[in-house]
Amino acid sequence: MANIARDTFVVGLRNAHAMEVQARELMERQSERLDEYPEVKAKVVTHLQETNEQLKRLEQCLEACGESSSSLKDTAQSLMANMTAMAHSVAGDEILKNTFANNAFENFEIAAYKSLIALCSAAGMPEAKAPLEASLKEEQRMAAWIDSNVEKVTMEFLSHQRQAA
Questions:
Q1: Regions in the chain scoring below 50 on pLDDT
Q2: Prediction pTM value
Q3: How far is it, in rounded angstroms, from Cα 164 to Cα 13?
Q4: In sequence order, which residues have a C-beta less than 8 Å from that of residue 5 and are 6 or more positions away?
Q5: What stretches of the chain show up as alpha helix (H) in DSSP?
Q6: How far apart are CA 151 and CA 45, in angstroms?
Q7: Which of 149, 135, 125 is nearest to 58 (CA)?
Q8: Which of 88, 77, 100, 101 is nearest to 32 (CA)?
Q9: Nearest 10 degrees: CA dihedral of 117, 144, 107, 37?
Q10: d(CA 131, CA 49)
């Protein structure tokens, strides 16, 4: 049972690493295009820094398991993130699409970290719990911020559209 739990944990860590690489790529592309939304840009830049720390934590957890991240998964996720960002960038309502996608993505990340935390004990990796909980809290804060700002961003978008008309 411990080997199955450990194997599941390692796969989950690798998947979470690839997920965070995708998040980093999305935020890097988005931050380049948020000048009209300075509050959103500042939050994305701050969360990008947190994401880089989350990647380091995941790498440390993988190293503690004697493993490394999957460069193939990381590359695939990075490619997907850049394609998503490009698709949104040509949309007239890019900020809205990004807000919706970021809301979904943050909640996906929250679920992934909760699953990893649940596996720590069974995988024989109790020391991984604290760093994973730190990442979970960061994701929960970002998800809460996005959720509480959907209306504001939507109305800012509307204001920009009216000014452009």
A1: 1-2, 72, 74, 81-82, 85, 88-90
A2: 0.86
A3: 45
A4: 119, 122, 123, 124
A5: 2-31, 38-64, 71-89, 94-119, 129-164
A6: 21
A7: 135
A8: 88
A9: -130
A10: 16
Tens-digit pLDDT profile for residues 134-147:
999 999 999 999 99
- 100 exposure class (CB count in 10 Å sphere: 0-12, 13-18, 19+): middle
The tokens 């990004």 sit on which residue?
A: 98
Q: How many CB atoms lie within 10 A of CB 46?
A: 15
- The identity of residue 48, as a single letter, is L
For the chain, the first-to-last Cα distance in angstroms comes to 63
The CA-CA-CA angle for residues 58, 138, 2, to 5°, reads 40
| Token pair listed for 37 | 């939304």
Q: Which amino acid is at 31?
A: S
The DSSP element (H or E) to which 126 belongs, if any, is none
Q: What is the pLDDT of residues 89-107, one digit of tens each?
A: 445 788 999 999 999 999 9
> So what's the architecture of 2-164 in CATH?
Up-down Bundle (1.20)
Q: Which two tokens stand for residue 18?
A: 């690839």
123 by DSSP, 3-state: which?
coil
